Each structure stands twice: as structure tokens, then as C-alpha cells.
Amino acid sequence: MLPVIQLRYCMKRLLLSTLVAAIPVFSGCHKASEQNQAELPSAAVRIQTVERKSRAATEDVVGTVRPKLSAAIEAKVSGRIEQMLVVPGQSVKAGERLVQLDAHEIQSRLDQAAAARQQAESDLKRFTALLEQKILSQSEFDNAQSKFRMAAAAEAEVKTMLGYTQIVAPFAGVITRKLADVGDLAAPGKTLLQMENPDTLRLEADVPEALIGNVKLGDKLAVRIAAVAKEIDGTVAEMSPAADPNSRTYLVKLDLPGATGLRSGQFGRVSVPVGEASAIRVPAAAVIQHGQMELVFVVANGHAQLRIVKTGSRVGDEIELVSGLNSGEQVVTEGAAALADGQPVTVKP
Question: Roughly how many angstroms between the first and final C-alpha of the chain, as a whole number?
Fold first, then answer.
């Protein structure tokens, strides 16, 4: 068995010999890498000097797109549904007939009221002639006149009720739900249809109490809807004066302008301002997505250098960089996807 000192000496000599043997290998790889970079052709690119920019810091609050004008259609009188004239998804005009109720009973009552009104009218004419001949007293004439007015009012009331058997659209819009069909009994308080106006939409969001102080009526806030490509400017139209005791949030409603692809029920986010922040921004085209990594190319000494970066929020056509670049560096904004690390580049004018 070797002494401990002799064993350590042998191990050091073995390690030293291994490193010496590996030096030519690493040296060969480094020379090969330099040779490959030298063989790369020069690429023409456009660059931009990055700088730190300030913006309003915001916090996103989720919300739902809802119609500004919606209605639950109910019957004002009881009756069987005789005709259901619309289906969900159908567009209707203001005053268009939606549902027809069975009107036989009310029609019979109208006939009775019309007969009573005609009788009262005939009596009034006869009493008027008698009053002119001074055969009838004034009180008897006034009594006949009152009976005629009551009969006319009763007839008008039944006519109105007969009109209620035709249920019409209160405004122009789209039928969204049908909750009854032919043969069902319609009654006051029972919803038959639901409709809304798709041309006037709003985003309803529950804003936490920590942020509600930054929102005021009339403010224009950025709204993002997944189905709409660009941000929408929403105007704060309504704010709940009291918080929900369960969620500690305030209901805020923002009017939305008309946009292609905007529909009721969609998920959205509204950006509530909370202060000011500054960060380095680069054009979105400069960032290359490679799996889970985000990369950019920086031009230094006529060569492209690959940098791994971490992105933050998107502001218009630019992306904020949390780390990876310093202010004043030149980043490739056009032609970055075709570059290799260390490749020589020429800058386009």
C-alpha cells in the first residue's frame, strides 16, 4: 500500500497529464468556430439604437362585454301563445311583431264594451234632444252623459288590452334567447324572449377598491378583447358608488366603440392606470422567439451578437425588455431571423 503523500503526488500528475492532453482538442474547436464565423457571408440589416422610454404603468382588470341596451320580453296580459314569430339570432326592427297571443276572450269583452258604448251614445243623443225641448231635467242629462263617457272609457281599455296580445319589439336588435313556444301560457312576469342591441356594447368590470381611486367618469381606458386585433378606447360611462361587500370591488361600465368581431359575452381586460414606469423598448420585429427563449441580435464592431432577453409588456408596436440589453446599444430590427451569432453585418441606410 502506497503512503498518502505518494498517492496524492500520483493523482496530481494524472490530472495534469489529462489537462495537457485536452488542450489541443479545445484549441482545435475554438479555431474551427473562428473559421466558421469567418466563412459566414455579410448580411444587410437595419438597426435601431435602443433607449429607455416612460409610459403610464397600468394594472389589468378583467371584465365581460355586455349590451348597453337589452330587454326581457314579457306579456302584459295572460293568454296562450298562438304564434311565435321569431327565433334566436334573428334581427328585428323596433315595433316588429314578435309573439301573438290568443285574443278570443279579450275580443269578446271588446264586443260587449262596444255594444255598451253604442247604447250609451244612443241614449245621450236622445237625452240631448229632450233637453233642448225642455222635457228632460239637467241632472238626468248629466247622468246620461256620464254613462256614455264611462262606456267609451271601458271600450278604450279593452282595446288597449287587445293590443297587448300582439307583443312587439321595443327597439331594433337581435333575439338572443327564446324561453317559450306555441301553446305555452304567457303571463305578466314570465319572460318569453330576450333581445339586445348589438350596435351599442360596453365592458363591465369589477375594479378592486385599491384601484377605484384612479378611475373617474369620462376617463378613456385601454380595453383589450381577444377577438379584436387592436386595443379599443373605452369611455367610463357608469361607476357604482358602493363596493360589493363580498368581493370589495366596484362595478365600472365602459362604453365601447363599434369594432369588427366585438360581441356580447366576450372576455376582455381594461388597463387601469396606477402610476408611471420606464423601460427599454425595442420594435416587436426585433425579438425572436425560439422555444421558451426570447432572443435579439445586437450589432457591435460590425458583427451580430446574440443576446438572450426577457420581455415585459407590449406597448403598441414595441416590446419592453426587462433584462438583456442596455440603453444605447444597437439592436437589429430587420433581418434578425436569418442571422447567426458572430456573423458580419452591413447596416442598411
Answer: 76
Euclidean distance between CA atoms 346 and 302, whole angstroms: 7
The architecture (CATH level 2) of 59-68+198-277 comes to Beta Barrel (2.40)
User: In the numeric block, which cell numbers belong to residue 301?
Assistant: 464592431
Superfamily of domain covering 103-164: Helix hairpin bin (1.10.287.470)
Listing DSSP states for 38-78 in one string gives: HHSPPEEEEEEE-EEEEEEEEEEEEEEEEESSEEEEE-SS-
Q: How far is CA 108 from CA 115, 289, 313, 347, in A?
A: 11, 77, 70, 91
**Is 277 within 8 Å of 55 (Cβ atoms)?**
yes
3-state secondary structure at position 245: coil
**Domain chopping of the chain, boundaries:** 59-68+198-277, 74-101+167-197, 103-164
Q: Which amino acid is at 180?
A: A
Which residue type, as a one-letter code, is found at position 219?
A: D
Site of grid cell 427563449:
293
Are the CB atoms for 215 and 249 separated by under 8 Å?
Answer: no
CATH no. for 74-101+167-197: 2.40.50.100
Per-residue model confidence as pLDDT tens for the chain (349 residues): 444 444 344 444 443 344 333 333 333 334 434 445 556 888 888 888 888 888 778 889 999 999 999 999 999 999 999 999 999 999 999 999 999 999 898 999 999 999 999 999 998 898 888 888 888 788 888 888 999 999 999 999 999 999 999 999 999 999 999 999 999 999 999 999 999 998 889 999 999 999 999 999 999 999 999 888 888 899 999 999 999 999 999 999 999 987 678 889 999 999 998 888 788 888 888 898 888 889 999 998 888 899 899 988 787 788 888 888 888 898 998 888 888 888 888 888 7
